[in-house]
Amino acid sequence: MNKIVKNNSLKEKKIITHKIQVLFLVPMHISFDSFLNPDSNSRSYKKADGKEYNSLATDLPLGPLSMSAYLKKFIDVDVKLVAIKKNNNNNCKLGG
Strand, coil or helix: what is 17? Predict the structure, then answer.
């Protein structure tokens, strides 16, 4: 249910009276080829089979976190973040 509030200015403000829900889905940010064939200047690790693999970054997704903070400053919002990560066995897992 939305309410329209009149104020002294010429514009009317629309106030949302229910909580908005936002879901951010954050996929992996490196390609599969980059994972299998890391650049010489990237972080990588060597497995028991002797092959070298790109190390997956576990950094926080700063873009969605910044957008969440901005939204929460101005409106009543419930934000969820799902980060999709890949483990060393080529399986995807969800983190949050």
Answer: coil
Tens of pLDDT along 6-64? 555 555 556 666 788 999 988 776 777 877 888 888 778 888 888 888 876 666 678 88
Closest CA to 95 of 17, 28, 21, 8: 28
Distance between CA atoms of residues 60 and 76, nearest Å: 23
- Domain hosting 26: range is 17-95
Residue 59 lies in a domain: yes
User: 52: exposed, middle or buried (C-beta count within 10 Å: 0-12, 13-18, 19+)?
Assistant: middle
pLDDT at 96 over 50: no
Domain count, the chain: 1
